[in-house]
Amino acid sequence: EVYFKNLSKQKQKEVMEKNGNHHKLRVCVATCNRADYSKLAPIMFGIKAEPQFFELDVVVLGSHLIDDYGNTYRMIEQDDFDIHTRLHTIVRGEDEAAMVESVGLALVKLPDVLNRLKPDIMIVHGDRFDALALATSAALMNIRILHIEGGEVSGTIDDSIRHAITKLAHYHVCCTRSAEQHLIAMCEDHDRILLAGCPSYDKLLSAKNKDYMSIIRMWIGEDVKTRDYIVALQHPVTTDIKHSIKMFELTLDALISFNKRTLVLFPNVDAGDKEMVRVMRKKGIEHHPNFRAVKHVPFDQFIQLVAHAGCMIGNSSCGVREVGAFGTPVINLGTRQTGRETGENVLHVRDADTQDKILHALQLQFGKQYPCSKIYGDGNAVPRILKFLKSIDLKEPLQKKFCFPPVKDNISQDIDHILETQSALAVDLGGTNLRVAIVSMKGEIVKKYTQLNPKTYEDRLELILKMCIEAASEAVNVNCRILGVGISTGGRVNPREGIVLHSTKLIQEWSSVDLRTPISDALHLPVWVDNDGNCAALAERKFGHGKGIENFVTLITGTGIGGGIVHQHELIHGSSFCAAELGHIVVSLDGPECLCGSQGCIEAYASGIALQREAKKLHDEDLLLVEGMSMKKEEVVSAAHLIQAAKLGNAKADSILKTAGTALGLGVVNILHTMNPSLVILSGVLASHYVNAVKDVINRQALSSVKTVDVVVSNLADPALLGAASLVLDYTTRRIY
């Protein structure tokens, strides 16, 4: 051990001699706000711990020095760092102009500071407008710049600022392999890029085992338990301030309705931040018994709060980066973090334009526990950065060079993509069979299990759990990572709660059944539930003819008649979750009785049950069988026999099928006149027998403005299972949003 320590010292000595007569590297670290300090502090501690190699100068500016944001420079002093210079650079204001003026003020003040300090290198973090002023000043004054967290992708103006700083910086410390590849693609010198991971992860990955209950009690309240509170942190989106203020209002309304203890942090200094604070005060957040509104929480304590929260909500980069280290559920709102790499714990609410959307996301995420993610670091960033700093040769030319040759291909891959295929557990509850399948992101059914559907609630739920657990275990063997469980079932379903409200007569003891809770508790996975017709429409939207179509309708023609409606790319559920009960569109006032109790429904004419009823009537009158047909004595008459008889020339059977096709066609015409879709997809075993009849009725009965609609037969082999899978695959997060 002594030998290796001496060897290390000798190598470091050689580097120092290379830099000229034992010259210590003079490092200026400039911090602008609480967020960047959480990333810079571990590096500052590392630099301070090696005074034989480095001299540290700390410059504080930006929101650190503003009382409205907690005077966070004090935490730098509490960490025992000497602050060399304090620069008041924030121009008060509520619009974009104030940000520009703040950059200008910083550019005016910084040259004098840098002339006095004469640093060898300046460390700049991230993508804030203050950081752009720092990088611009240093570059124009021929000071080397080390940029932390370059190459990442996100929304708003921050993206442009981050990439602008990259072009000014001489050295780059990035956190992920993708960020490294982006830097190379931006023509940065590969030799000057360090893939180190995020410095804050050096603290994060050792933080969760510390005492945390006292911190939770101090910030949330005495009677709060772990995983039973929410942390909210939302900032203005400077490229669309008005929308981001509205989204913040909806977020607060959803949090008030959700009725859980919530810690709300004040937003960053950005155009629109004052308006967000006014929204908080207008809604009485600071005096609401469920809320604590604070300007700042020290990073060490903030770590503990998010590590043990039931959920974090907002649009802060902390949610999509640091919180993944603990597997805490996160709801990322809007576009501010678009493009960020995220772990499985993040649920993106792309258009958070209604309170219900945000509330639904809270119901899905709150209290879950996801696998911990190390996308952004492994806890060893600081040693790598210090080693990188020591390797900098100050004798090298200051002028940076850009590498314009083609980007090098990166052969390394994320371990998840090497070993596992992201997949869903799909459950289809039919009138006869209960099926569970492992379905990949591409719609491939990797493995399928089938059992008879039990007649009682207890037996059915027990079998679902048993089959799901078996499939989840088998998923490991077939290299699939299960992201969640999607369930397709007959009847009326409340997808927000995961409850079957009323079942069809084909599935007994299946009303007011909570499917989400027992399955989620048993498998520790998120669970989605929806009606089988809606699932068929979702399957078409993701894997079938409906892919990329804005408005279309799917009709299932099987034992019953069902369907789903997609309008403006979204599935319609209706105010009482009864939308798209297409089988019960009435096409005749005195038609046959339907299972729903009404008369003349499409289902009473065109369903498998209806065709079987007519086939039995013909058989009883000895009018079904024709030459070329035969039936065993014990064989049950079915719709298939009616179709076979019609094909073999049975005029009565053919007439029944034509009537059924006409009834279905009239129903489709009603849908066209109501929804005006551009596509109608017929799915199920009877679809191919009805498609021509439906087209004929449209040509005869529909208004000329809707006759151009496309009517096609689904090409999906298993729409129920694929639709159940798409419930999961469409709503669980991707790594790239």
TrEMBL record:
Subunit-structure text: Homodimer. Homotetramer. Homohexamer. The hexameric form exhibits both enzyme activities, whereas the dimeric form only catalyzes the phosphorylation of N-acyl-D-mannosamine.
Family recorded in the similarity comment: In the N-terminal section; belongs to the UDP-N-acetylglucosamine 2-epimerase family. In the C-terminal section; belongs to the ROK (NagC/XylR) family.
Chain residues that bind an N-acyl-D-mannosamine: 492, 504, 532, 581, 584, 603
Catalytic activity: an N-acyl-D-mannosamine + ATP = an N-acyl-D-mannosamine 6-phosphate + ADP + H(+); UDP-N-acetyl-alpha-D-glucosamine + H2O = aldehydo-N-acetyl-D-mannosamine + UDP + H(+)
Xref: InterPro entries: ATPase_NBD (IPR043129), ROK (IPR000600), UDP-GlcNAc_Epase (IPR020004), UDP_GlcNAc_Epimerase_2_dom (IPR003331)
CDD domains in UniProt: ASKHA_NBD_ROK_GNE (cd24060), GTB_UDP-GlcNAc_2-Epimerase (cd03786)
Pfam family, one: ROK
Name of the protein: Bifunctional UDP-N-acetylglucosamine 2-epimerase/N-acetylmannosamine kinase
Species annotation: Atlantisia rogersi (Inaccessible Island rail)
GO biological process annotation, one example: UDP-N-acetylglucosamine metabolic process
Keywords carried by this UniProt record: Allosteric enzyme, ATP-binding, Cytoplasm, Hydrolase, Kinase, Metal-binding, Multifunctional enzyme, Nucleotide-binding, Phosphoprotein, Transferase, Zinc
Top-level taxon of the source organism: Eukaryota
Active site: 532
Main location: cytoplasm
Pathway(s) per entry: Amino-sugar metabolism; N-acetylneuraminate biosynthesis
EC number: 2.7.1.60, 3.2.1.183
GO molecular function, one term: UDP-N-acetylglucosamine 2-epimerase activity
